[in-house]
Amino acid sequence: MTALGAAFLTIVTFKFYITTEHLYLLELLTLVIVFSGGEAAHAVKRFTGLYTGPYFDPSAPTNITTQLGTHAYMPCKVKQLGNKSVSWIRKRDGHILTVDRYTFIADDRFQTFRVDGSDTWTLQIKYVQARDAGQYECQVSTEPKMSHFITLNIVIPKIEITGEPDMFVKMGSRVQLRCVITQALEEPAYIFWYHDGERVLTYDKSAIDIHAKREGTDTTVSTLLIHYTNQEDSGNYTCSPSKLDSSSVVLHVLNGEHPAAMQRGKNSASPIPAWSHLSIGLGLAACTPPRFAIAVALTLAIISEVLAC
């Protein structure tokens, strides 16, 4: 073999040796990578835990209570939302109210807002009505859908003017009308009084005074005080709190009349006294046979009783 041939054989053998070693090392490295990759995958899975996608905050409320006429706020806290959407649905009729920040109901009292950087989507209902009570569903557009339910409870305050619906007072007396509002979570922004449809103003506090105060956690009392009543003070008085129903009373200022006489005067159709039939019978007895007179008197008494019924 020539020197040139020997040199070529040496080079080929060296290349083959290196290539074989590299293949061995490559296979060994592949096994290490595969093994390490599997362990890494398990490590990532352990790190994320149960929630690999969106989930509801366990501390989110399931019951919200608000007062009639005020605003209701129902928060829905969704973690790891990603690119999913949040919808609010009214449970009683299945109506989709909002999707993200878009509203899909003609009632402009409903809207959803989310503070930038937060994970809370809040459904707002303005000036809540009694019919707004019920369940609302916060739904995330995963497959299958995820839902969180909130029950909205509406508290309806009670309003009444204490005493009888008709008040009778003597002219010149002092009158106090008390309007009591109970079961009110919030104190009314204002309480107006009206006399025969016109608002009562207190420019002259020596004649009329109005004041209100909070009693306890859910009661407000407004008092209308008339220091010296006269005939012009008679009429209908209405207590009207903000965003709530009203209550009324009728004040009668008497100028020497008796209340019972005024009440009788309201009824224009009063029955004929029963003893008048006896008088008629006695009058007939003077000029007719007694049996005929008694029969007429009894007949008139029966007719009167029937008409009275």
State the gist of this model.
By secondary structure, the chain is an alpha+beta fold.
Characterize the structure shown.
The protein has four helices and 19 strands. The chain has helices at residues 3-48, 259-265, 275-285, 290-308, and strands spanning 55-56, 63-67, 72-79, 86-90, 95-99, 102-103, 110-113, 120-125, 134-140, 146-155, 158-161, 166-170, 175-182, 191-195, 198-199, 208-215, 219-226, 235-241, 247-254. It is elongated, with a radius of gyration of 44 Å.
Shape: elongated
Order of helices and strands: HEEEEEEEEEEEEEEEEEEEHHH
Mean pLDDT value = 77
Assembly status: single chain
Strand order, sheet with most strands: 2-10-9-4-5-6
The share of residues in extended strands comes to 35-45%
Taking the alpha carbons of the first and last residues, their distance comes to 148 Å
Low-pLDDT parts are 1-48, 264-282
Task: Chart the SSEs and their pairings.
Layout: H1 3-48, E1 55-56, E2 63-67, E3 72-79, E4 86-90, E5 95-99, E6 102-103, E7 110-113, E8 120-125, E9 134-140, E10 146-155, E11 158-161, E12 166-170, E13 175-182, E14 191-195, E15 198-199, E16 208-215, E17 219-226, E18 235-241, E19 247-254, H2 259-265, H3 275-285, H4 290-308
Parallel strand pairs: 2-10, 12-19
Antiparallel strand pairs: 1-3, 3-8, 4-5, 4-9, 5-6, 7-8, 9-10, 11-13, 13-17, 14-15, 14-18, 16-17, 18-19
Helix pairs in contact: 3-4
Features:
309 residues; alpha+beta; six-stranded mixed β-sheet; 19 strands; disordered N terminus
